[in-house]
Amino acid sequence: MHGDGYSDLGFARVDVDRAERTGDPEVVYGAGKTVEQGVALVAVLREAHPDRPALVTRAAPELRAALKAAYGDEAQVDDDARTVAVGPLPTARGTVCVVSAGTSDGPVAAEAAFTARVVGAGVRRVSDVGVAGIHRLLAVRDELDTADCLVVVAGMDGALPSAVGGLTGVPLVAVPTSVGYGASLGGIAALLTMLNSCAPGVVVTNIDNGFGAGVFAARVARRAQRAQP
Amino acid sequence: MHGDGYSDLGFARVDVDRAERTGDPEVVYGAGKTVEQGVALVAVLREAHPDRPALVTRAAPELRAALKAAYGDEAQVDDDARTVAVGPLPTARGTVCVVSAGTSDGPVAAEAAFTARVVGAGVRRVSDVGVAGIHRLLAVRDELDTADCLVVVAGMDGALPSAVGGLTGVPLVAVPTSVGYGASLGGIAALLTMLNSCAPGVVVTNIDNGFGAGVFAARVARRAQRAQP
Amino acid sequence: MHGDGYSDLGFARVDVDRAERTGDPEVVYGAGKTVEQGVALVAVLREAHPDRPALVTRAAPELRAALKAAYGDEAQVDDDARTVAVGPLPTARGTVCVVSAGTSDGPVAAEAAFTARVVGAGVRRVSDVGVAGIHRLLAVRDELDTADCLVVVAGMDGALPSAVGGLTGVPLVAVPTSVGYGASLGGIAALLTMLNSCAPGVVVTNIDNGFGAGVFAARVARRAQRAQP
Amino acid sequence: MHGDGYSDLGFARVDVDRAERTGDPEVVYGAGKTVEQGVALVAVLREAHPDRPALVTRAAPELRAALKAAYGDEAQVDDDARTVAVGPLPTARGTVCVVSAGTSDGPVAAEAAFTARVVGAGVRRVSDVGVAGIHRLLAVRDELDTADCLVVVAGMDGALPSAVGGLTGVPLVAVPTSVGYGASLGGIAALLTMLNSCAPGVVVTNIDNGFGAGVFAARVARRAQRAQP
Amino acid sequence: MHGDGYSDLGFARVDVDRAERTGDPEVVYGAGKTVEQGVALVAVLREAHPDRPALVTRAAPELRAALKAAYGDEAQVDDDARTVAVGPLPTARGTVCVVSAGTSDGPVAAEAAFTARVVGAGVRRVSDVGVAGIHRLLAVRDELDTADCLVVVAGMDGALPSAVGGLTGVPLVAVPTSVGYGASLGGIAALLTMLNSCAPGVVVTNIDNGFGAGVFAARVARRAQRAQP
Amino acid sequence: MHGDGYSDLGFARVDVDRAERTGDPEVVYGAGKTVEQGVALVAVLREAHPDRPALVTRAAPELRAALKAAYGDEAQVDDDARTVAVGPLPTARGTVCVVSAGTSDGPVAAEAAFTARVVGAGVRRVSDVGVAGIHRLLAVRDELDTADCLVVVAGMDGALPSAVGGLTGVPLVAVPTSVGYGASLGGIAALLTMLNSCAPGVVVTNIDNGFGAGVFAARVARRAQRAQP
Amino acid sequence: MHGDGYSDLGFARVDVDRAERTGDPEVVYGAGKTVEQGVALVAVLREAHPDRPALVTRAAPELRAALKAAYGDEAQVDDDARTVAVGPLPTARGTVCVVSAGTSDGPVAAEAAFTARVVGAGVRRVSDVGVAGIHRLLAVRDELDTADCLVVVAGMDGALPSAVGGLTGVPLVAVPTSVGYGASLGGIAALLTMLNSCAPGVVVTNIDNGFGAGVFAARVARRAQRAQP
Amino acid sequence: MHGDGYSDLGFARVDVDRAERTGDPEVVYGAGKTVEQGVALVAVLREAHPDRPALVTRAAPELRAALKAAYGDEAQVDDDARTVAVGPLPTARGTVCVVSAGTSDGPVAAEAAFTARVVGAGVRRVSDVGVAGIHRLLAVRDELDTADCLVVVAGMDGALPSAVGGLTGVPLVAVPTSVGYGASLGGIAALLTMLNSCAPGVVVTNIDNGFGAGVFAARVARRAQRAQP
Fold first, then answer.
1. What pLDDT shows up at residue D55?
2. How many helices (H) and strands (E) does chain A have?
3. FRET partner for E11 with CA separation of 20 to 30 A, picked from C30, C110, E202, H57?
4. Each residue's pLDDT tens digit in chain C (229 positions)?
5. If contacts are CB pairs under 8 Å, which of residues 47-66 in chain G contact chain F?
């Protein structure tokens, strides 16, 4: 049944060979799925690849509890990130540094950091260094320069990646968040700011997409370290 | 004919008493007006208020030339700002500091600076201090702190006002420009960034509206100095 | 720990030196913060600057109650404005006049007025003078002319700042509100109206951002009075 | 060939019975039509209804010239309005008053006025009475009150209809224009302002649609007068 | 206290002379107002103008009940329209015909009809005649032609006003509703359709603004009949 | 009462002759209708056309239960699709194949499939074949090629129809769903992707409009088979 | 070189096997291509499939002339549609009827009709039957009912497909055009109208995409006729 | 003069130390700059860093010619990319593979490739492999897997990055282009598609921003190879 590269559950055709193609763990996007669907999907993935973790994002509290109950210590839950990893984590290679602007941006930064670790990178976090207090940013400059990839998370004006990108040449992934009101348009304002960054080489993910940023950053960090003894 | 507070030219009802109401010079918005209309409007304003300048913004080169030809030394032309002032300038009170991010933002910054001077403030300019090179900004911090009002002009990501606003408590007017491409949406991206600034107390004008920022900033600067001997 | 200019709480890096940089009180943006986070942030700010108030905006009723319980008379709560100030208010210098169009705009106008007072200005309010009844506006013209800075709050068509701006030369900050329905687009319509005001020198804040307008207006008003004996 | 209510020209199926259905003249929308198509369409309409005028809007200068050459005194051309009427105008019944904010709004106001006359109403114009100078508006209040229908034309902030609508109960059609720049979004800002007018009973047309406003207003004005001796 | 043309309630400055200026009843926009505020506003208006009705729109069920309890038979409540009128209705002059497309458009159509009656016109309704069943529309053509003003209410594609406008020359006010999903964008799609109507002389109100359409249409209908014996 | 082609229920003018005009069953759009209205509308349709099914879409659980209670085995309920059919289904002619990208797209795909069957086509479904796992798509290529019309349902990036459209020349209807977050803008992103598909001959429905796609696809499939013995 | 299913020209990888996969001719999208690129692409396609036509859309006049010069009678040019077909046309099977609203919609309708013929269907056209003159539409109802697929082209309000879709059950592809101004937003208004059509089973293409509609409609029409002797 | 880390030209404050901070060459954004400004900026950069190239993007033909004339063989010009590099290129480390969908996307892909080389990576290009012909994409899979970073360029539906991202785990930067018409909204459609990619780990740049993608990808590629002998 897995010979064709996927497993047909009726309600889902699980792509059990993605890991081979991409080197990443399999991922279940938890939003809009029932607890039963979530648990069943993880079970298939665990069976197909016992040596790799399954990652569940945007998991409702009930799904997180159900996975914890089912897998015990094998399941790592990050409530701030609304994320669960089931199975053994890979060795950490390289370092992703997740920088965030305000406390409200915390959950998205947590999702990015947790994901990056599950995908195979080491992770550092620097929080609450918004652009309106530049001296806080300058104080952590060394932490920025020694990372292999940066993930910079900000809502409202989304200006932080431009400031960070002017300080360092480390590859930088910007993540806009939906933090804000009125003309923030649910994060569109921060998204547009980041897409128009005057710092060269800033790339951007969807609003609140800490997961995508974590995957990407970990791929870069792992790669940066792959040739080292 | 001026007793009613306006003068009827047929194609325009000139508001000759605005100065009395607001303390500002009269202004002609030059875009979409013929040279003949522009010259006639200035003539009415000069006649009604010989002691105050008339300001023409967004003036096409032909209109600028016609006003220079008609008024000679009485007309001050700023080609970069596309602006002309005809008549004696008021004494400069207080200081407006116009800060701009990139060379492409120059014309809007020039319009703001020229307007602020015509409306009655002293003016300083600081150019090319974008947020992607924060050390350039830190180097001019004293010039920011000693102004009575700041005008901060930026296109693309529009992040500069947030950075400046975090450095100083001087009243700050942000002006988004249409510099950029793609997702800058003709300046909408920078406008949204500024409206969502995480630095408290940033206020914003329309895209490319150096004129409006200049008027506002000069009013604040004049007022800050009005009680001084 | 405060020697570096900020205090690290783990979940937040509080910028305790902002007051020195900007002359303003420290501010906690209450939306999206738990009661515990809000109370902890205020405690840090009170300890760092016992002589200055801490201002909490967009505070949920529970947070307002917790701060009142914790600080008693030292805490001033404005339920209409959803705002709390803890600590001694500065002497009022200059006058901010907050003008609003309809009763639904009241909370935003209250936030602007409360904030302006906490930041150090005297405050006057003029309510319910929408542009569709211009005689109401003309009746309060003296109150407009004698202020040091105006804050004009309006939803729906957002036309009030244009009318007020035509009557007076006092610096004018326009605040669009999300009052309206359908094509008001959650306040975008009023925001656009104000950005395109045909009255010169109107500047604008984010939708419903009474706080930002209050900070800005108080800075202008304080400055207007700073040289007076 | 006309028995079916339309005439088939190959490139167009002219609706020659519309006048009977609506009481209005036939109209040719000139934009995007060649001079040949424009002239041919007018010829069909003139033949089908010799007793009614044919109205051509958004006519390019070449088309206006061709119609003038073909019909001589029978053709009335308004270059400001880019409009031509060919054939006898109907008796004027009732009065439409077209009010406009700035000189740049002139062409749209002219189109509205010309159209209203061709559709059968008497027409008055009041120009350059923007909301930033309210006393100019108050000075013409009688002209507003004695009209049967008002057409109020404004660009930029589009605030004029709200102010006029607060002064009078005469039916009021608001016409946004594309005058402005930046956040005026080609007239969208003024359109939204008018749709959200806080004055009750304001109705709106498409941006720059002086023609539509003229048709509507003339229908109202004719109707207001139809029962009079 | 009413000598200045308004009455100051503290939370609202009631414009008690609007009726004199416009000939309409006073209106309270109920959305976002408490029951107490609503009742107090009606009381002021009833006292100032005992001979005219006060109209409350977007009234919550509690406010409708409170007004019914307070005024008994003097209060007319239309639950479908969420609207209450308190006081004697004016004599009906002329006829407004309210046409709606689908059953979901009913509340907006009801608001338009109720308002038009309170403002002084006679009212007829034609329901459920969407453009996808054109024969239903043709069957009621006489009802359209004999009205003094039409109000055409439609959601989703908003195509009905174009079809009705092609059948008759009666002044036509189009009201888009928020009925629909997805790309209807909360009524923006229908609004745009109507603004771009290919039938000449269609004017438009804000989304779901049955009230505004009713006011406007009644003004036209009253005027059409004003000269009749 | 049915002689005029519709039946007047007071709150709705049911178009009982649509089937004759279009060959389709009558449809009740359940959203925003009460259970009573829904049941009454079905009763009228069943009486008018006992030989054809009535289809109720977007039916709330209560309406689905009421119809099941009222009609028993005559009512077919699809809870996933939120849809009910009452009455005998037509013979299935031709084949519609409904392809969907993710499990979250299931309800829309179910609505399309159920509708297509009720309108008269045979239906096949292929689920969970998103573009990020192209080998899953290639594995079902035969199922695509042997259908008479394809319905391809996808949210998020909406890329699936482009990939399917490059594999086969079968007529393809793309249905964007509101699955996603942030910059998916409630399905607008997927809608735009599909409208710009680089595969020729892709046509698109409204967001989440499985019903419309099902109607259209069944019409094509029935037609493809109409000449066969 | 063609064995891999494509031919590598350096600047383009021509997909010479698409015809086998989809049954359609190969297509060159002419916009943004030089004359040299266009001619070279056609040459490759002609060589690979001498028995099938190559279709060039959005061809500039120079490219149309170059292809006519190169291929003579083998090239069919439709200047109205800006389209060229080179090579033998397939036998026409089934009938596509292209319906358009106004003369300005002609080029898009021509592109749809020309494309449908090249892709293998017979074609009929009905022009200038806008929804504002419904009797013109009713007069051609038989032509609608006897087609195998309809393409309905309209700009401005985009209401025509809803009216046509209410008259007939023939599969209907709606094509919005960019004809209009102001709030037509370059065709977005018509696009939204069509996506929200209240007539069931209307599907939509991109703005001005006559080509896509022609491909789709021809596929449906050919299929409808494929089983006939 | 360079001791402060920038050089003040009057019209620009050139940041000559950026290279030290980021490891990249200095860049001049050529759009909106005169030939004189462009040449002067390059001269400053060449003088400050004779060992590093200066890169000029969006250079008008005149500026490209002027730089070629001034620097001869030292200047490398890519007319397709509208880009010039002056000075010695760094050793190429790692490999960036630039994949593009259609021939119209060529200039943006060229800009990305040229930039990546100047910033220090080796570069490969794969052109014309749109998602509508998936077999072309599968044929180049090895070229994708062996790169250190991918840049995937696509306009219209922007679906290519999702398909590529499903095939490989190499870090992938997606670049939307403004290729398309109508609902492509100048590239916004492709941008949204990419931001919502269902392939994990896709990051995005501004529309047409080949430069930014090239900088980012080269940084990743250099880093991937930095530890190799």
1. 96
2. 9, 11
3. C30
4. 334 455 555 555 555 555 555 667 788 888 878 899 999 999 999 998 888 899 999 999 999 999 999 999 999 999 999 999 999 999 999 999 999 988 889 999 999 999 999 999 999 999 988 887 788 888 899 999 999 999 999 999 999 999 999 899 999 999 999 999 999 999 999 999 999 999 988 999 999 999 999 999 999 999 887 544 3
5. none
Does chain H touch chain G (at least 3 C-beta pairs within 8 Å)?
Answer: yes
Which residues does chain E have within 8 Å of residue G138's beta carbon, measured at their own beta carbons? 134
Positions of chain B with pLDDT lower than 70, given as ranges? 1-23, 226-229
Q: What ipTM, to 2 d.p.?
A: 0.89
User: Any CB–CB contact under 8 A between F207 and chain E?
Assistant: yes
Nearest to D212 among E24, E201, E212 (CB): E201
Place of tokens 């105006």: C150
Considering only CA atoms, which of E196, D2, D4 is closest in space to residue G160?
E196
Burial (CB count <10 Å: 0-12, 13-18, 19+), residue A195: buried
Pair of tokens at residue H109 = 């892909």
* Partner-chain residue, chosen from C104, C135, C184, that has the shortest CB–CB distance to E32: C104
H helix and E strand count, chain F: 9, 11
Measured over the CA atoms of residue A206, residue A211, residue A213 and residue A219, the dihedral's sign is negative
Judged by 3 or more CB pairs under 8 A, whether C touches D is yes
In the sheet that holds E95-100, the strands lie side by side as: D122-126, D95-100, D149-154, D172-176, D202-204, E202-204, E172-176, E149-154, E95-100, E122-126
pLDDT along chain H (229 residues), means of 10: 48 55 76 90 90 93 97 96 95 96 91 96 92 83 94 96 92 96 96 95 96 97 69
Interface of D with E in 169-188 (CB under 8 A): 169-173
Structure tokens at B109: 């910054």
CB contact under 8 A, C133 and E6: yes
Structure tokens belonging to residue A174: 């910007």
Contact C139 E186 (CB under 8 A): no
How far apart (Å, rounded) are the C-alpha atoms in residues B137 and B99?
10
Contact C101, C73 (CB under 8 A): no
Average pLDDT over residues G196-215: 95
Which string of DSSP letters, residue by residue, matches chain C? --TTS-EE-SS-EE-TTHHHHHSS-EEEE-TT--HHHHHHHHHHHHHH-TTS-EEEES--HHHHHHHHHHHGGGEEEETTTTEEEESPPPPP-SEEEEEESSGGGHHHHHHHHHHHHHHT-EEEEE----GGGHHHHHTTHHHHHT-SEEEEEE-TT--HHHHHHHH--S-EEEEE-----GGGGGGHHHHHHHHT-SSTTEEE--TT-HHHHHHHHHHHHHHHHTT--
Of the candidates G76, G77, G96, G84, the one whose C-alpha atom is nearest the C-alpha of residue G26 is: G84
* Subunits adjacent to chain H (3 or more Cβ pairs under 8 Å): A, B, F, G
- State residue D130 phi and psi, 5-degree precision: -65, 160
- Residue B89, Cα to own-chain centre: how many angstroms? 15
